[in-house]
Write a structure and sequence with these properties.
3 helices, Chitinase A, domain 3, 35% helix, elongated, 174 residues, alpha+beta, 6 strands, disordered N terminus, single chain
Length: 174
């Protein structure tokens, strides 16, 4: 009986050792991926950028189609719908303007809202698309801006806004 226990323990030990040795064996190495030339890398990046821009255009078009609002091109890929025209003076370059706003993504996710002061065409904290729209606005205007990522927070995003996000600004120029 003692001998059968010893054999069982030895068998268990051999089994554990075999499992340990099997775990130490290296898996077969995968073959190295072929190195791409600089031209091939550049071409792949260009293709990826084109695909990302096409996807963004699809999102912008889908948003405009779903709202049925009268968006007009506002330059550089942005679109604008003037909900109401104000009776105040036109906004001037370098003017410090207060806007009430709600900032969302094209799928409805809310990123920010409140009031903001913007120094038109001179404000490093305001996105370019907003500043250019303000340059064309009057005090009292209500606008909806549809901005591609490059006129918003771009490749990096900012705060709650993810990278490469087209933006929707609902704003009133105060």
């Amino acid at each position: 009986m003692a001998r059968s226990r010893l054999v069982s323990w030895l068998q268990l030990g051999l089994l554990v050792a075999a499992a340990g040795f099997a775990g130490c064996n290296r898996p077969e190495e995968e073959p190295e991926a072929p190195q791409l030339s600089a031209e091939e890398v550049q071409e792949r990046l260009i293709q990826q950028n084109r695909a990302a821009l096409e996807q963004e255009r699809t999102y912008l078009k889908s948003f405009m189609d779903s709202t049925q609002w009268a968006f007009v091109p506002a330059g550089s890929g942005a679109f604008e719908w003037r909900v109401a025209t104000g009776t105040g003076a036109p906004v001037a370059d370098k003017e410090l303007v207060t806007v009430a706003f709600r900032l969302t993504g094209v799928h409805g996710e809310v990123y920010d809202q409140g009031t903001q002061e913007v120094r038109v065409l001179r404000d490093p904290d305001a996105v370019w698309g907003l500043q250019y729209a303000l340059k064309r606005a009057r005090h009292g205007d209500s606008l909806v801006l549809l901005l591609p990522a490059h006129l918003g927070h771009g490749l990096a995003g900012a705060g709650e806004v993810p990278p490469m996000s087209p933006l929707v600004y609902y704003l009133r120029v105060l």
